[in-house]
Description:
Shape: globular
Mean pLDDT: 79
Largest sheet: 3 strands, parallel
Amino acid sequence: MKFAAALLANGLIDDLMITFTVQADSYREMGDAVDLARQIGASHVNFGRVTNWSTFGPAEYAQKAVFVPGHPDHDDFVTACRAPWLPDPIIWPSDLDEFFHDGVWEGVNAGNAAGCRRIELEGRSWRSVDPV
C-alpha cells in the first residue's frame, strides 16, 4: 500500500482506489477502510456488495448478503452505512448507494448513476461498477 501511495504522491498514477467488498463479515470495518484510505492518501474507497459468481451456495450467500432486507444484521448494516462519521467525499458507494445516500449524504458522489462512473481507458468506455 505504501508503494502505491508513493506512486500517487509522485504523480506516477492519477488515482488510487481501495476496493472494499461489503458482506456480513466485513461491514463493521467500513470506517477502518476510510481511515486507511486517508492515512495512505488514497483517492477513493469503493464499497461494493459481495457478489455470488457461483462461488457460494444459496444458503452461504444468504448469510453473507447483509444488504438484503431480512438478513439478521441488516438493520445494523444500514446504521453503519449512515454513521455520522462515515460521509466522506472519498467514498464511492457503487451498488450500495441506496444505503449511503439518505439525504445526509446529498452531493457526496451522489451524481454517479446508481453509484457508477464511466471510465475511459485506451479509447474504451465502460462503467466501473454495473448497476443492480
